[in-house]
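Blinded run. Sample ID left blank on purpose so nobody reads anything into the name before looking at the predicted structure. Input follows.
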Amino acid sequence: MGRCGIASRPRVADIVAAAGLSNDAFYRHFSSKDELVAAILEDGAERLRSYLAHQMERATTPAGRLRAWIAGVLAQAADDESAATTRAVLWNAGGLGEALVTGSPATVLATLLEGPLAELGSPAAARDASLVAHAVLGKLSEYLRRGECPTDQDVEHVTAFSLAAVAR
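Blinded prediction complete.
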């Protein structure tokens, strides 16, 4: 998928050839290419969740943890190679059915925000965490689609917006 980018979607035959596997080996683990893409998305969301949790642990304030989360998510568009791979996987995921994805990346990542948002005074931390996560992932998608890298000012703006929303 990384090699094809967003120019074309690889077939299962292309994937197994690149991996040096047989079709039988592929289908022992996945019933379809969509199931493989769903597994890649779930694994990527869990890796990002782990990275974000580590970044957030370094911050000493709830606002700092929120900023670390936002900066970590938007950083996925900063590295050219990583951004290209993320863009390719998301592009290939465009045809996934909801049943294949056990939990959306936004839901998995939003749980990290519940504690800091509650500490900041949110009366509905889980709901606010979901809204912040969807907004930030939407901005990430926009940066990936445009091939742009978010600036420090972009991170600060999204953080200030999120803090203002929680302070309502």
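Unblinding after everyone has recorded impressions. Residues 95-102 have pLDDT under 50 and may be disordered.
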